[in-house]
Write a structure and sequence with these properties.
- The chain has 427 residues and is an alpha/beta fold.
- The protein has helices at residues 2-9, 18-21, 27-37, 54-66, 80-94, 109-121, 138-144, 172-178, 201-214, 253-256, 271-282, 290-304, 313-335, 367-379, 410-425, and strands spanning 41-42, 104-108, 127-132, 148-153, 155-156, 163-164, 168-169, 183-189, 217-221, 247-252, 264-268, 338-341, 347-351, 381-382, 401-405.
């Protein structure tokens, strides 16, 4: 409402271009600010409130002290030390020798990789298939490139009893029907935000077969690749037969090392796709921050020496988060939420429809928006309404859910559990 009022006051010469209108609203900004005003315990925005591994701090200090050239521009497409170690880390994972100069590009966050892929590959009128729920910038970036988002929702295959994110699946025939001569790309996010779904090999093979049949690029958003929980496996789209040449795989230093403020991401893929992203990068942000790239390079070099050790942060982080996930699911269940247990990532959807909360709103908005406002203002507990991760036509699928984040300190989870315990006494 505030943004609409602001836009209406602008003189005509100051109005945003049409494509920018769709990008004005940010669900994270709106509800984070509401949580701040109400001093709510924050289980909303997706970042840790505990420190990253200590070597990140040590390497950042060393980077600042060791070489004055770390304060200057570095190679446009990725600091040489960083892309070299990324090649060493990811070549075995992609089961091929990755050329650090031609098949990796470093960007300002995974956001930058997504934007570079859209602007570099999508032409006006091209269709991009987006699987719902989706990270809410996907369709905005497609619009910015002049493309047309085409949506398909994951749906739970059961309505009774405990639910896992793996219970949410695509309708294969519906998916087949979306591919046509205008389809340029499909975005696959595994593990998925906000659902936590880890796609199985069979599910990815269905998508891969359609990509090959229709000559479609797969933009594989794998920023939560290190956060896979017991009993599940992260399968890379690029490893499926015939998919390397048509897949861009996106990763994030912020998610990998619990340092989201670094805003560093990278894409890995065949040279012809990475080249398109390079052209966008050199004419937009130019390059990413040298000292941050140097820091992350040094931290990867350390982790590379202990990949199979329990001390490796790639192994330590999911081991630390799985009990937090289980704890959150337990205390949410005790007050009447029905959590969807995530197989990966650090978000959890929870169905609130049986809590019996009577909601009233002065504005026309999805029910989950109204519930989250009530939860923040009345219970001082912050979450995010997941209908923001759906297209307008499918928002009803999420109206009974809210999204919680569990990559939080024990103190934060203690505060949330205390709120839930007091709430339970009133039921």
């Amino acid at each position: 409402m505030v943004i609409t009022s602001f836009v209406s006051l602008l003189p005509a010469s100051f109005l945003f271009r049409q494509k920018a209108h769709a990008c004005l609203q940010s669900i994270r900004v709106e509800f984070t600010e509401l949580a701040r005003i109400n001093k709510a315990v924050s289980l909303g925005q997706g970042f840790p409130d505990f420190p990253p591994p200590d070597h990140i701090r040590r390497n950042l200090v060393a980077t600042a002290e060791d070489d004055h050239m770390n304060y200057q521009y570095t190679r446009d497409y990725g600091h040489v030390r960083l892309v070299d170690v990324l090649s060493k880390v990811f070549s075995p994972l992609h089961q091929r020798e990755i050329d650090p100069m031609k098949e990796i590009i470093v960007t300002v966050g995974a956001y930058g990789s997504l934007f570079g892929a859209m602007l570099g590959l999508i032409n006006p009128g091209d269709e991009v298939i987006i699987i719902e729920p989706f990270f809410d910038c996907y369709d905005k970036m497609v619009f910015a490139a002049g493309g047309k988002p085409v949506y398909i929702p994951l749906k739970p295959k059961k309505s009774e009893g405990p639910q896992s994110s793996g219970d949410w699946v695509l309708d294969e025939q519906e998916l087949v029907g979306l591919f046509n001569s205008k389809t340029k790309a499909i975005i696959v996010n595994t593990p998925n935000n906000p659902l936590g779904k880890v796609y199985t090999r069979n599910e990815l093979e269905v998508i891969a077969t359609l990509c090959k049949q229709h000559d479609v690029v797969c933009i594989s958003d794998e920023v939560y690749e290190r956060l896979i929980y017991t009993g599940h496996e992260h399968v890379r789209m690029s490893l499926l037969p015939g998919m390397w040449d048509r897949t861009i795989t996106i990763s994030s230093a912020g998610k990998t090392f619990s340092a989201t403020g670094f805003k560093l991401g990278w894409s890995i893929g065949p040279a012809h796709l990475i080249r398109a992203m390079q052209l966008v990068l050199q004419n937009s942000i130019y390059s990413s921050a040298t000292p941050l790239q140097e820091t992350i390079a040094r931290s990867f070099e350390l982790e590379l020496t202990r990949l199979t050790s329990p001390e490796c942060y790639f192994n330590e982080l999911p081991r630390m988060l799985e009990p937090k996930r289980d704890r959150m699911a337990k205390f949410l269940s005790e007050v009447g939420f029905k959590p969807v247990i995530p197989e990966g990532g650090y978000f959890m959807l929870a169905d609130y429809s049986e809590l019996g909360v009577k909601l009233q709103s002065d504005v026309v908005e999805p029910k989950d928006y109204t519930f989250v406002r009530w939860l923040i203002t009345e219970k001082k507990l912050a979450a995010i309404p997941p209908s923001a991760f759906y297209s307008e036509g499918h928002q009803h699928l999420a109206e009974n859910f809210i999204r919680f984040c569990f990559i939080k300190s024990d103190a934060t989870l203690d505060g949330a559990e205390e709120i839930i315990t007091e709430w339970k006494k009133t039921l």
